[in-house]
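User: Before I run my own analysis I want an independent prediction to cross-check against. Here's the chain; please return only the structure tokens and, at the end, one sentence I can use as a sanity check.
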Amino acid sequence: MQEIDFMSVLHKSTNRDYLARVNDPIYPKAEAAILAKKYDYDYWDGDRRINYGGYKYIPGRWEKVAKKMIDYYSLKPNSKILDIGCGKGFLLYEFKKLLPKSDIYGIDISEYAIKNSKEEINKNLTIGSSCNLPWDNKYFDLVISINTFHNLYCFQLEKSIKEMVRVSKKNKYLCVESYRNEYEKTNLLYWQVTCEAFNNPEEWKWWFKKCNYDGNYSFIFFE
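Assistant: Structure tokens:
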């Protein structure tokens, strides 16, 4: 198990006004969270003050992440890849472009996201829960989950990490939100609208050990 950063290049490209998120007169934090946790239109394509404010495919944005993972894990042309919490499938689409013969699969709890996913790979995406993955043991050459597991309650988190381990042959990578000090903790509390698992890095590592997770990981910090 090793920490490796695939995601900060994207995370740090966004400017955030934490106080404005909390005190917005139309969508104050609590109201935004209520809407966001439906994982429907408002979460993906609604007002930016709720969440993404329009989660659209941007050519090249996810390609560099896919390329880094392909190189790091030495993926073969016919590798089987799973994205848990795949959203609209943009990262999987980049994997498929770079590895045309690969078998890509995605699962997400959001029916809206799957219905509005990249048309080219829509048939490879499934509406479902990370707690119960519909694939056989050791089926995938790479299993990833980006910015998903921190949205789970502890009883869901344990099941989901164990499921991720179960369906993976070896290579695994997950990325979650975390904090290293009280400033980052406050920013996380101000900014997030769906997070349920508020863990510092040592607490996350405790979860990994408890669930026998032996893959790679990284953390998103709100500095």
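Sanity check: The chain has one domain: 8-220.
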